[in-house]
Amino acid sequence: MVVDAERTGGNLVTDLSSDPAQRGLHRYVQLVAAALGADLDRCRYEWDTQATAYLPLPQHIPGMTEFPAQAGHRLALAWDEQSGWSAGVDTGNDFLVLATYLDDIVPAPRVVAAFVCDVADGTAVASAPSDMDTGHSKAQVRQQLTAYAPTGPDTPTDLLPPRRL
């Protein structure tokens, strides 16, 4: 199931699912987007055979003229339950990975924001997703996502302080 902001009522969790891991993924994407100042309306995630997320970011990478911020080339984040977060350039046709966060599959949103800062300023070490320790089971990832599932009325992400890069 592909979920975007229009289908989920903007930045509030609605009746998405009774599955707490799916609701947790939705909330996790909200929190990461808020930490990065990303436009939640442009973020999307999918909960199908594999959980994935995609967040286009307002940041660009200074000095990387081969990836200009115009013409559809922009910094973005991609996440999946096997590889975790990768930062890259979305060319409109391809997602060119610049670096992958290797320490955790579901790091705290502030950690993801710090990772993006490192990528944007050139201090992140380039790595391939295959370098990830794949010792995380699907059940462990679901448990981590479930921890983000709201148990009551959800907090609109516009009330969360964004982290400006």
TrEMBL record:
Pfam families annotated for this entry? DUF6292 (PF19809)
What is this protein's record name? DUF6292 domain-containing protein
**InterPro entries with a match to the protein in the record:** DUF6292 (IPR046259)
Domain of life (superkingdom): Bacteria
Q: Whose protein is this, by species? A: Lentzea flava
Residue ranges annotated for the DUF6292 domain, each copy included:
28-116
